[in-house]
Design brief:
alpha/beta; membrane; 373 residues; DUF1647; globular; transmembrane helix; seven-stranded mixed beta sheet
Length: 373
Amino acid sequence: MPLCWKYSIYIILLSTWLLYTLYAVKARLDVAHSLHLNKKTTNSVVADSIILVPNARDGNALTEYKDSLVVNFTLPRRLSAIADSQCPDGFWNDDELMWNNSKTNQSRITKFEQFVKAKEWNSKKLDDQPVFVTAASSNHFQEIMELFNNFNDLRQRFSRVWVLYFFNLGLSKKEEEEVRIMCNCSVRTFHFDQYPNHVKNLKGYAFKPLVIQIIARKHKFVVWMDSSTRFKKADINILLDEGKKRGVLVTQAGGTVARRTLPTMFQYFSTHPCRFRNLPELQSGFIILYLNPFVIHRIVWPWIRCALELGCMIPAVNPEIYLKCKTYGNVYGECHRFDQSALGILLYTSYGKHISEHTFHWNNNMYLSFINH
């Protein structure tokens, strides 16, 4: 072996060892910093004192988030260790659940009211049959075509004429033509120009609650399904009836909400991430919504507002850097689930100990599964 190659190998090995050492030291410093913060804030009262600066490392959003109902704890740094000490146990009191009472949001969402408190939400909707909604861009074209085939088979098996709405998020003209031939659905274009500019970033998933709200204005019983949804052979009517009775029904996954949500989103909703440290994620890939007043006011409207406001669902910095999970271990905000993170916070703070009545396992069930999981 030439001498230069030997030196190259030695340099590569040495560089790898140095990078590993630096990463280990950084992880230990993060843990130490987290424990120091926990000790420091044991007896503190910090309502109205949290001011964050935009920072990709910490996942912070906008400096104007100054007000908070969070008491006795400072907001943890992103990637700081999740610890059980110095954190309240159990669920929270009703006076802490009133999202509409939060000073953090009320002065900030006036310009978005046209998307939220429109008269259609309060009109008497006579239809009581479920309508299904999905959306896709070109990178999920094959996936959505397979869903159409699966859904058409579902309708045929149960002799149902369920309405399906499909929203084009950026298909080519040829792809849209194929969708119209295949889907047996109402094809619509999602008009990104009607919404804030950050909604255009599809990897932030802000489009999802906004697509749902378009249909929810006209229909009371709405079922969202990602392009990865696949229905099994069991009678889906049983699941739909359960969702109608419960108001909301979603799938439950494995990772915790605190680990897979940026700390600043908890601040937006005036709660603390440590309360979600042991609560499993609630997925947004398949959602059954029966739009009674409670569901509209406590879940759907806040979800829409979060999608519309940069810094809540979509961070103020590039959201793509928060997509990767399972890298740093059990830390706050290891990654971010965008629409799913917001929905999980809203569902837990709305239903508390009764959350199990609104969930079923994402994979271990007889009704549906998700591909690429």
